[in-house]
Give the backbone structure.
Amino acid sequence: DAGVIQSPRHEVTEMGQEVTLRCKPISGHDYLFWYRQTMMRGLELLIYFNNNVPIDDSGMPEDRFSAKMPNASFSTLKIQPSEPRDSAVYFCASSFFAPATGELFFGEGSRLTVL
Amino acid sequence: GENVEQHPSTLSVQEGDSAVIKCTYSDSASNYFPWYKQELGKGPQLIIDIRSNVGEKKDQRIAVTLNKTAKHFSLHITETQPEDSAVYFCAANIGGSQGNLIFGKGTKLSVKP
């Protein structure tokens, strides 16, 4: 398997623009997670899905952020409108195990810069 | 709120020396403690994990110890090599098996040849 695939790897945009990050999880993994990594706050869980259904979105910072998983092989994280404080590396991860019980497989991340 | 503290934030060792990274957690219900390694430009990758029913686990040059009474766990890397240079994250499942993984802030390890 190719692992978790994220796109784009790098995104530079201007404040107010819409940003869409994409993720393809490992086939057979029932859980998909979106994390945000910053120097100040480290790795933070934004939302996770089980069998394409959002289970816990308590980490989503505000209404500007939304995530969808229309099928088992694709998920998006959207920020609209984007702000400079959204600049971070966004990771998608997938797992065969329920959260907090087994290995997470991370993608290589999408580095977002909002000017 | 519940959290995971990790120390030190940076660690520099000479090749061949040992490196130790320590973490403490606050939730007594936590029972799963993984360690992830993140190389530059990559996503974190699991290197070892331990569950609360054991006190120590080894895998070649890496080992993890767990003290549930004191709520701390540590990563030990022996005979360090330059390729061990990376950022290491500890984590704990705050809220137990029904909770979520909370990550420490990371330790940047540099191994000097």
The interface with chain A takes residues 32, 34, 36, 41-46, 49, 89, 93-101, 103-106 of chain B (CB under 8 Å).
